[in-house]
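Reading group handout, session on sequence-to-structure problems. Before we discuss, look at one worked example. The prompt was deliberately terse, the way you'd type it at a terminal:

> structure Transposase

The input record follows.
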Amino acid sequence: MVRRHLSEPEVARIVTLVEEGYTYRAVGDRMGRHRVTTRPDDRAIIRHVRREPFVHSNIVAQNFPNRRQQQPERRQRVRNISSRRVRNRLGETGLRARHPNRVPILLTRHRRARSAYANEHRQWTLRQWGNVLFTDESRFSLHGNDRRPLVWRRPGERFRQNFVRPVAAYNGRSVMVWGGVSQTWKIPLVIIRENLTARRYIN
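And the output record:
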């Protein structure tokens, strides 16, 4: 348990609260550390990450004093805040730092085509889907840095356009693994060491 030194005025206030009938828990709540940020401060932090969901909490903390330029007396009292405090304020509203989903770069016509395909087949039965072979590929990087950034989002926002990471064609030296499954069988994995062109995909 962490203990801290109490000043004489604080001790006197605690004694007064106890004599007035407050429980120890209530006294502790009243004597706890004051919240450093105000509600407007908290809203400013939230607006920052909603406008820039991929921003690092350190950047938000560093830029925080600049948001109080119109109130110099407030800026003197709150010189800075820590990145941990930023994360705590965001967490209070359900915002968590998550790895963004990687999605292909799609143009408007691509989205329309996918939506049309989904609507066309949404009434299919399990037997019909059982005749379909689902294929996909995955890349394993041999060199380079594949670290994914973090994005601030709330539950249910995983696939929203502002919170995903569009990826272009695979760059750098890597190995592509391709495979497929259906309802009753699967095909062996195929290792593709070169670029997967349309002709090579058909073959």
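Points for discussion. First: Residues 1-33 form one domain. Second: Confidence is low (pLDDT under 50) at residues 73-78.
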